[in-house]
Amino acid sequence: MAELAEPGRPPLRRDAELNRRRLMVAAREVFRDRGLAATLDDVARHAGLGVGTAYRHFANKEELVDAVFEDMIDQVEASAREAAADPDPWHGLAYSLEKVCELQAHDRGLREVMLGTGKAAQRHALVARRIKPLVDPLIARAKEQGSLRPDVEQLDLPMIQLMVAAVTDQTGEPDLWRRYLRLLLDGMRTQPDGAPPLPAGPALRWRGGLGGGPGENPVGEEPPRSSR
Amino acid sequence: MAELAEPGRPPLRRDAELNRRRLMVAAREVFRDRGLAATLDDVARHAGLGVGTAYRHFANKEELVDAVFEDMIDQVEASAREAAADPDPWHGLAYSLEKVCELQAHDRGLREVMLGTGKAAQRHALVARRIKPLVDPLIARAKEQGSLRPDVEQLDLPMIQLMVAAVTDQTGEPDLWRRYLRLLLDGMRTQPDGAPPLPAGPALRWRGGLGGGPGENPVGEEPPRSSR
DNA sequence: ATGAAACGGAGATTGCATCTCCGTTTAGGT
DNA sequence: ACCTAAACGGAGATGCAATCTCCGTTTCAT
Q: B residues 51-90 near A, CB within 8 Å?
């Protein structure tokens, strides 16, 4: 919404402000296509600027990623909000998942941020905390409605995103994910009588971070697992 | 099965032969726990040997991975063979998937080899070609039986493995995958009337390699993904 | 016009993994 | 026992790729 000068930061010279924006746009594109592993050099060149400039605006890559990521979350949240308003909870749930997965499918950077491929796992907690309150009631309603099998939990959703993202990541096929999301959704529907319950669900917190419980994961990096 | 001296290779001095074996064992363990990214130095140290020794036995890491991987495939094939003999095709199919996923869950290296996280995508084709003939009839039988939804295809199976592996990879939870495999299996069952068909399936060949069509993927290296 | 701000990009720095080299140790034949 | 070829070990050479710095040059704004 706010397309004006950002708050807080002291005003920049006009060219600086412009370049900052160029960098953000370039970063968005580069991260989308090549993932967070892209170099700041890459981003800068894509923006038609020098690396030095990039480093004056953002202390390091993390900072740039954060800046870019801010915007992306808004999109995710928007579709979740839309879904939450759906009178048919099953439809809303399915729609919500489909939208997130669609965003992910187009955006490798987003996948990596959401799934924690890159570091900084606490970003997920952020997402989770904004999305959870929107989706939770949807789940409850869908169970009442009898469409969603009762042993599905809130924490299953990020896992489903994860799985779907893996499909896109591996195959590079831009639409194949739809097939497997459907498979999962069909599995999430209330099953015929006599179907055994789902095996144990996700623990409250997990290494990756996406499914935000209350506590923060102290996860810093990868599991060290020393060799010896 | 063959636990005797390998064929072909000229006989090694006893200590050399022993060390070669030690290296393989160590590699198996290290790759299992830390994935293919592990260093040859790591493997050598784990085997209680020097790097130099490792490099005398294996020209490079790839070669070692191949040697180790050979064995792993046998296990995969064994369970597929067992499943193929199951009189109940649905049960066999489910069992087959469960077994592969279980192996993967315990073995990060195996996940990476099967999913092509590491390079050398043609290894998958190898797996696929050994597994496919076992599983194909199972699928056909399960469809006849009416338990498997008719729009599931052979190429869906590796994708399911992929998704399940992603769960383990991301969460580190050793058993969580069971839940999502179940979800997928339930989605693969014949659906109630009126359910829409699955969206488009996997193309004949895909970047990752696992689902072996006839042609080899000309993929040489990994896509511009570098990380870590 | 002029000084402060911003730029650009070569290259210093860092970090890590692969692989080599050669002095030392060991197996195993005589 | 002795001897030699084979095998070992591991420090370090090599290569590579990414991050970030430095400073001479350009641009803005007054």
A: none
